[in-house]
Design brief:
Spore Coat Polysaccharide Biosynthesis Protein SpsA, Chain A; 8 strands; alpha/beta; 57% helix; 2 domains
């Protein structure tokens, strides 16, 4: 009796996770069917404070700042602030050489990007009404020349929080950077753009986003966990705000070069997800029930990603092993005893659809080459499988707040990227 009850509970949890996966699929399909809204052209220039939180980034900060100096936006309407956060190298010196306004921060107790941003935001608030909005970038980022122009258009159309398109600075370095790139390219269209088309909230992606300064003052930053982007997105939705997508505002982001760096980075993401979910999931669900606010439901389901990945991964591996054993048994004359439930057959259809649609989405952004497709079919599944143990670690260690710095070393200029793009 006891084991039957446990089996039923486990089956119910797995079924719920399948349903969440189907929800993801439904949002993507519906979002693809809806045309993107066109923004009105309004002749008004907002002044931006571009903020870069940098910890020992002397290898990459120069080209990042050069790309900002080459924007096709009036130089009088943006300033670049670099937070030299607990730096022991020449980040501050190199930033000054490129004309940035450098603020050096030393705080060994409150470490991490979230704390550094909050510290800088408060300093900008003290400057009065000088700026209309704040742009947040990472020190390794290279931005497209039209980045601020696109953000300005969105602000002029009344949007308060805007996420740019996260592209890859180094997709061709190795199998890992290309796998990261495929994941981000797919996410830009199947997750971000689809939600934007449906009027749901996109998710902040840690970099390449714009915050209306009055909205930021009203809500307050306060996002200092390991995934400050997810935490602030949840705060926005709880305060009846949302994130929109500026699909043509491109940020080239450096992807980790080694499996160790990637593992630590993604484990931090999953720790942050588990932490934020534990604090916001039920609040978002309550808001959905009381206000019928689908943005809250969507964000709540997104926040439990580590749990969804873990359960789906374990169940998929278990079913695959069971199927292989049944096939081997059949070869030796035994009865084939593997049985698919209807919901598992539906999930298999979902998995196949997801596998087939991703290359199409990458092609729409002109990213699909034969090499990319080959990696997608043969190598990308390995990257996906690594998410299972990483998610488990993230859930287990959700209360550990230690920040692991990802070393950036790919010193690429915007001219190199634009040349490659063309």
């Amino acid at each position: 009796m006891f084991f039957d009850l446990i089996e039923k509970i486990a089956s119910g949890i797995v079924t719920l996770v399948y349903i969440i996966s189907f929800y993801y699929l439904a949002v993507s399909v519906l979002g693809l069917l809806v045309k993107s809204k066109k923004d009105k052209k309004i002749d008004k220039k907002n002044k931006f404070a571009v903020v870069i939180a940098a910890h020992n980034e002397e290898k990459v900060i120069t080209n990042s700042l050069k790309s900002l100096n080459e924007l096709n936006y009036d130089k009088d309407f943006y300033d670049v602030f670099v937070i030299a956060d607990n730096c022991t190298d020449k980040t501050a010196e190199y930033s000054l050489q490129e004309g940035a306004l450098v603020y050096e921060r030393q705080n060994t107790e409150k470490k991490g990007k979230g704390y550094a941003l909050e510290w800088m935001f408060n300093k900008i608030f003290e400057m009065g009404d000088k700026y209309s909005a704040i742009i947040v970038l990472d020190a390794d980022n290279i931005v497209s020349p039209n980045f601020l122009t696109e953000m300005n258009t969105k602000l002029n159309n009344g949007y308060k929080v805007i996420q740019g398109y996260i592209d890859s600075k180094n997709p061709d370095d190795n199998w890992l950077t290309l796998s990261y790139s495929i994941a981000f390219w797919s996410n830009n269209r199947l997750f971000q753009l689809c939600r934007d088309n449906l009027g749901l909230s996109c998710q902040l992606s840690g970099t390449g986003f714009c915050l209306d300064i009055e909205t930021l003052k009203e809500i307050g930053w306060g996002a200092t966990c390991l995934t400050e982007d997810l935490e602030f997105t949840c705060k926005l939705i709880m305060n009846n705000q949302k994130v929109v997508c500026a699909y043509n505002a491109v940020v080239y982001d450096e992807k980790p070069l080694t499996l160790k760096q990637s593992w630590n980075q993604r484990k931090r993401w999953m720790q942050g997800f588990a932490d934020v979910s534990s604090r916001y999931f039920w609040k978002l669900i309550e808001k959905f029930i009381k206000q019928k606010d689908f943005k809250s439901l969507d964000c709540a389901l997104y926040s439990v990603q580590p749990i969804v990945i873990t359960i789906l991964g374990i169940v998929s591996v278990f079913n695959m092993c069971k199927l292989l054993l049944s096939i081997v048994g059949l070869m030796f004359g035994q009865v084939f005893d593997f049985e698919f439930r209807a919901i598992e057959l539906i999930y298999m259809g979902y998995f196949i659809f997801q596998f087939l649609i991703t290359p199409v989405m990458i092609h729409l952004d002109s990213k699909l080459t034969f090499r990319v497709f080959l990696y997608y079919v043969l190598i990308y599944p390995i990257y996906i499988i690594t998410w299972i143990p990483i998610s488990i670690q993230g859930i287990i260690n959700k209360n550990k707040k230690e920040w692991f710095h990802t070393d950036h070393s790919r010193n690429i200029s915007i001219k190199d990227l634009e040349k490659f793009k063309n």
